[in-house]
Amino acid sequence: MKQQALWTGLGLIGALRARISGGLPRDVTGVSIDTRTLAPGDLFFAIKGEARDGHEFVRLAFERGAAGAVVDDAHASAFRDLSPLYVVRDVQESLESLGARARERSSAYVAAITGSVGKTSTKDMAKTLFSRFGETHASAASYNNQWGVPLSLARMPASTRFGLFEVGMNHAGEIASLAPLVSPHVAVVTRVAPVHLEHFDSLEAIAAAKAEIFSGLVEGGVAIINRDDDSYEALLEGAAASKAAHVFSFGQSEGAQARLLSYDAEEQLAEAEIFGRRLRYRIGAPGRHFAVNSLAVLTIAHIFDIDLEQAAATLADFTPPKGRGRRESFSIGGGSFTLIDESYNANPTSMRAAFELLGAERSARRRVAVLGDMLELGPSAAELHAGLAADLEAAGVDLLFTAGPLMARLFYAAPEHMRGAHRANAAELEEAALWAIAPGDAVMVKGSNGSRMSRIVEAIRTKFSAETEAPR
Questions:
Q1: CA 20 to 30 Å from 133, out of 71, 191, 377, 429?
Q2: What is the pLDDT of residue 464?
Q3: What is the pLDDT of residue 468?
Q4: Which residues pair with 274 in a beta bridge?
Q5: How many angstroms separate the CA atoms of 352 and 265, rounded?
Q6: Mean pLDDT across the stretch 372-383?
Q7: Whole-angstrom Cα distance, residue 200 to residue 335?
């Protein structure tokens, strides 16, 4: 079946503020900045990244079926034999221009989601929900930076009914530059936590940077804030200074318009009161943090005029993104064990939530934590790692394996009976961690992406035979 056109070749000239070299493509069916994932019919943007310049891959893009490429004036002469080319002053600016044009032409209801933790899973939970009620477009993976946000916008079809965009940051001012591109009707801050402390001197500074999301709200938009957050008042001030006509809150605290009343981890059942309506619903992923963030998703649904009971029923089908709490079951020695893959990212707040999730595995023979360094925590990083020892004990963790110089602080702060092995890095820890797994275990693997704990997850998948998704 022929793929639907995303952009016309002619319409791209104005949207990109480009001149044409060679003929025009009739249609473009996608947008790409990476030849590894480029599909035939995509428009390739030669973005200059931190390590490589996309102009190095323009020829490869055409070999792989690109409908055209966007290149800058400085490189255009090197590709005179290729066609069609959209030649622009600055490729990054043209990607942003195309993203802005996609937003302008759209009549979709749009939500933007940020937060120190939980933004990707909350966005994916919202995608699960809204896809049941109309054509839904959402940021892929964690496409939330200066390339990912305009790229996600540029990929949004004009026929989209619901648009869901994740917005992230490492420095102050980054969200402020991205939020107006998204121009959301609703902006959500999931949580403010001690993340990126290398670039911020306080939690208050992080809260101020997250509150920048509200600066992009359309006139009369809605701000949604976690009422349980220590930075709630600071976020409230940020929302009050924006174009928001309403500010709603979610969480477990009294006063939240969307309040979690109870959560049963074994059954994955949440009971909540949302705008005065009592709901009981199942979430397809275990963990109180998912239950809390489901309240933000249901608040968006309420704002977008979707029946809350119907909306809540869709959350049973939610599956966590890869590396963010996904459960799998593997055969071992006449029995099985459960893997909880939390290997994508980590900070003190998400670590504590992960320990709580592991602690809820009451039927497990042993609860095993395999942890890598939490990165970008600044000068207090060692203390923040060591400070998690009490949380490991509270969760009833039986066996601890750690990798990295920072996790050494937690390993030796943990009770001696809990210590399995510590190694310099994930590669060196792999053998010891896999050798220790036994039937009946619940094994959680977690660490910052840069600590490469995903290699241990992949080693588990390679060594052991997968069963169906781990049951509850």
A1: 191
A2: 94
A3: 53
A4: 258, 277
A5: 15
A6: 92
A7: 47
- The pLDDT, as a whole number, for residue 27 is 93
Q: What residue ranges do the domains of the chain occupy? A: 7-91, 106-317, 326-466
Give which of 168, 141, 165 is closest to 153, Cα–Cα.
165
To the question of domain 106-317 being in CATH 3.40.1190.10, the answer is yes
Tokens for 441, please give them: 């275990």
In DSSP terms, 368 is beta-bridged to: 399, 443
Burial group, residue 239, by CB count within 10 angstroms (0-12, 13-18, 19+): buried
pLDDT tens digits along 422-463? 999 999 999 999 999 999 999 999 999 999 999 999 999 999
Q: What is the DSSP string of 339-392?
A: EEEE-S---HHHHHHHHHHHHT-TT-S-EEEEEEPPPS-GGGHHHHHHTTHHHH
- Asked if pLDDT for residue 469 goes beyond 70, the answer is no
Model pLDDT, residue 198: 73
Q: Indicate whether 472 pLDDT > 50.
A: no
Place of tokens 């992406």: 449
326-466 topology per CATH: Protein-Tyrosine Phosphatase; Chain A (3.90.190)
pLDDT of residue 97: 98
Calculate what percentage of the chain has a pLDDT beyond 70.
98
pLDDT at 2: 64
CATH of domain 7-91: 3.40.1390.10
Q: Could you tell me which of 22, 64, 73 has the C-alpha nearest to residue 43?
A: 64
Q: What share of the chain is helix, strand, coil (3-state, %, to 5)?
A: 40, 25, 40
Burial of residue 210 (CB within 10 Å: 0-12, 13-18, 19+) is buried
Query: Packing angle between helix 348-359 and helix 288-303, nearest 10 degrees?
Result: 110
